[in-house]
Amino acid sequence: xxxxxxxxxxxxxxxxxxxxxxxxxxxxxxxxxxxxxxxxxxxxxxxxxxxxxxxxxxxxxxxxxxxxxxxxxxxxxxxxxxxxxxxxxxxxxxxxxxxxxxxxxxxxxxxx
Length: 112
Fold this sequence. Notes:
Layout: E1 2-3, E2 9-13, E3 24-28, E4 34-39, E5 50-52, E6 57-58, E7 64-70, E8 79-82, E9 88-90
Antiparallel strand pairs: 1-2, 2-3, 3-4, 5-7, 6-7, 7-8, 8-9
């Protein structure tokens, strides 16, 4: 799990959640309240990706970024952005991100 600026903790499950059990993004408050913010693959084709691998990382604007290792364009995973309220969008070009292993997106994060 990853801590956030507001004190809540954010994480992912690789499996489970939603109708297809393809992973979730969740929030836990310091008091222990658990909220599922997003369940992956809510529609046919799974353009949003499935099976997120690691906790999302919070950006300076408050949004979180993460990656899935399957589905999306070309079935190689996605890079996603999710707001603290659960609005998820995938990055333009997801699925054509260069991957050294050929398994899922490979991301280099450059600090500002």
